Amino acid sequence: MASKESEDIKVIDAGDLVCYSLEVNLWSGRQTLTRERLMEYAPNNRLPPAELATMGSVRIADAHEVQSFNRLKSEALRILRDHGLPIMGAIGVPKSQAAEVHLKLREIQRKFNELRQSLFIRYDQASQAWRAKWISGNPGAGVLLNRMPTAEEVAGKLRFNFHVYRISAPSGDVAGGELDDLYHESLMGIKGELFSDIAREASDLMTKYLVRKQGDVATEKERISRKTLRPLQRVVAKLKSFAFVDPSVEPLREVVESGLNQLPADGPIVGASLLQVWALVRMLANPVECAKVAEQARALSSHERESHLFDLLPGAQMAGDALGAPIPEPTERALPEQGIALRNIESSFIDVLSLL
Length: 356
Hints:
Number of domains: 2
Order of helices and strands: HEEHEEHEEHHEHHEEHHHHHHHH
Helix content: 40-55%
Number of helices: 15
Largest sheet: 4 strands, antiparallel
Radius of gyration: 27 Å
Strand content: 5-15%
Number of strands: 9
Distance between the termini: 48 Å
């Protein structure tokens, strides 16, 4: 008969994951500015305009020429972040979503290559126009712009590619099985990555959409819309996609989804319903508390998870007691008197419900 401990062990099958690794090279549109070139431009210590040169570099192309490439890279990273989790230096995507991710990355690659070809064709003319713009108002700027790269050199720097692969355990006789142990340790870390990813999503929702910042003080919003809850819907989707990593993940998904389903379908979310949102977000923003609730939910049936929702979520009993009772007109209140320093929000979680 299997022990309780053995029942709790989840063997993650790496076959459930498809790994993606981006290989993107960008062009900064800048060149290194040496002391000799700067002295040649400014023998009397007269510095060039900040739009042209900054400490250590000189801009040799309009910023708009390189921003489009940066945006495409950011879009690719966002797609991988939305669908996958970090693992062994790559992003592991559930095999059920691999085809969708692959098509999206191929489309970004196509756009990237089109932009590169367009820049290659226009580069000589754009480079001359950039140089002429600065020399016309400041002839001395020619010293800083007399070593422009060629179109071929710029095109050669720009590259968008990605690699797709599966991972598997190394041979057991390699390093006496040590590598095999490290491999399985890395796989088991996916659960922690999942809960950390969810915590980031919940913390962003809390700080960007559930509170209003006025100076160094953040105040609770008295009402929100269903649109505000999109990050929680993404959390539900992420939990569903990675349910295979641990038996407690699917029960946690049911808890979050049940909490969302109990909110009003139309109109603003206020009063007890807003307290329920806070309870969900506060729990998800704390990986330790999230894991605790997930294990508690695992011990219940699906029906019990829904009926005992307010018992599972720390602080949600307040919302449960308020449901069905007259809801007073919401008023805006400051959170702590000292306010919430936004620079500290990412490193600590806001214990909001304790303030209500």
